[in-house]
Amino acid sequence: MSSDKLHFETLQIHGGYHVDQSQARGIAIHPTAAYHFPSCDYAANLFTLSEPGYIYTRLHNPTTAAYEERIAALYGGVGALATSSGMSAILLTVTSLAKQGDNIVTSPYLYGGTHNQFVISLRNLGIDCRMAASDNAQDMAGLIDDKTRAIFVESMGNPTCRVADIEALAELAHSHNIPLVVDNTFGAGGYLCNPFDWGADIITDSATKWINGHGNAMGGIIVDGGKFDWSCGKFPTIDGPSEGYHGLNLYEAFGNQAFIVKCRVDGMRDFGCCPSSFDAYLMLLGLETLSLRVKHEVESTYRLAEFCRQHPKVRSVSFVGFEDHSSHELAKKYFRFGASAVMTIELEGTLESTVKFVESLRLSAHMTMIGDSITVVTHPASTTHKQLSEADLKAAGVTPTLLRISAGLEHADDLIADFEEAFAQVE
Question: How many structural domains compose the chain?
């Protein structure tokens, strides 16, 4: 049976698995750094990209390859590249698209680490990251010029839970012959949201979150949708002579997989942010239960959000599953169940009383994490968005009493009781 006929729940188990000579049912862990070359000619062909195979685990590993194949199948992409973290996935993506003097246009509704990478590290490399007033296409359009090489958004902003209009942004990007890149971490590995269905060209994902789901491994992923025309004249490092491979044209050699090959053979080769084979194996295990975990977590989020909305010590609840959320209609369009497993709440009171509430929780963990088996409560102003200026915090929707909540696998009744006991400690 062709994999394109299989449902998500089936692909999350069978994708990337091939019976080898051992006949083992599970995918093997290959804890090796290097690989034997049967001949010098074979090795030379590997290094000129004229023959597929394994050179060094920084570039490729059999366990990691199975994981990449499974992810690509779940998203319906032409290829994927596993990285050591979500941040490295974004770094490889942007630096594969843009060079010194180029720019990307992005939303202000970003994870704090992404914001810092864009406005500090990438700008120090000579890539201008232009932050629009919002993620609306009309706000981004005015920032695009002949040096723009991508539009970048999160499918659901962190921590505001604002949903980007992916279809409208894809139309805007394509009208300027540039790709739309979507960080789909909140889309849970494609189960809740698949931006490719709405015109996105490249997806990044922090696999540390829902893909792994158990907080025991770090990782990121880049997925190539295979639909963007790299011959449009704006990407000479993809459709042009390669400096690193004796003038090889990646687009002519690899067709619609050229971008993901570029990320691997240039980006991963030079930056070296590869996952270990063991971490790739843990990601494969996490994927097998992804849909089951996420469905439960979304249901718990609905219940916890409803409880918080009715509590007198909660000023407001931001949950896209509620009809009064500004992104509710977009969530219904782009997200399975019309919601994610994350919400934010603003407490009545002060920074001090908010801290007291967080520190009074017993089941819910205080960590910088989402998509975990454990329910996590994060105070963005003092953690994930701590480095942002007051103006940037305001633009991102982060206040001193804002809490981001990612529901885990606990029973919803127990989570509600934990919150109630913590509220009782706050005056």
Answer: 2
Do 164 and 299 lie in one domain? The reply is: no
* Span 215-241, pLDDT tens digits: 999 999 999 999 999 999 999 999 999
Same domain, 326 and 264: no
- Considering the domain boundaries, does residue 404 fall inside one? yes
The neighbouring-strand residues paired with 346 are: 316, 402
Q: Which residue has the tokens 């454990």?
A: 374
Q: Which is more confidently placed, 393 or 426?
A: 426
Residue 3 counted as domain residue:
no
Give the domain range for residue 242.
8-286
Cα–Cα distance between 26 and 295 in angstroms, integer?
A: 25
Reference 402, options 372, 358, 367; nearest CA is 358
Residues 6+ apart with CB under 8 A from 144: 105, 151, 172, 176, 178
Over 70: is that where the pLDDT of 395 sits?
no
Alpha-carbon span 186 to 335, nearest angstrom = 10
Which residues lie below 8 Å from residue 61, measured CB to CB, with a gap of 6+?
30, 32, 54, 274, 277, 280
* Residue entry with tokens 């002949």: 146
pLDDT tens digit string along 2-16? 566 899 999 999 998
Q: What pLDDT, on a 0 to 100 scale, did the predictor assign at position 159? A: 78
Q: Which residues contact 391 (CB under 8 A, 6 or more apart)?
A: none
Q: Which of 234, 253, 286 is the last residue of a domain?
A: 286
Q: Are 47 and 315 in contact (CB under 8 A)?
A: no
Task: Give the distance from CA 282 to its chain's centroid.
Answer: 17
CA separation for the pair 192, 84 (Å, rounded):
23
Mean local confidence (pLDDT), 320-327: 95
365: exposed, middle or buried (Cβ count in 10 Å: 0-12, 13-18, 19+): middle
Cβ neighbour number for residue 394 with a 10 Å cutoff: 12
Phi–psi pair at 131, nearest 5 degrees: -95, 120
H-helix or E-strand spanning residue 92 = helix 86-97
355 with 413: CB under 8 angstroms? no
Side chain identity, residue 198:
W
Burial of 67 (0-12, 13-18, 19+ CB in 10 A): buried
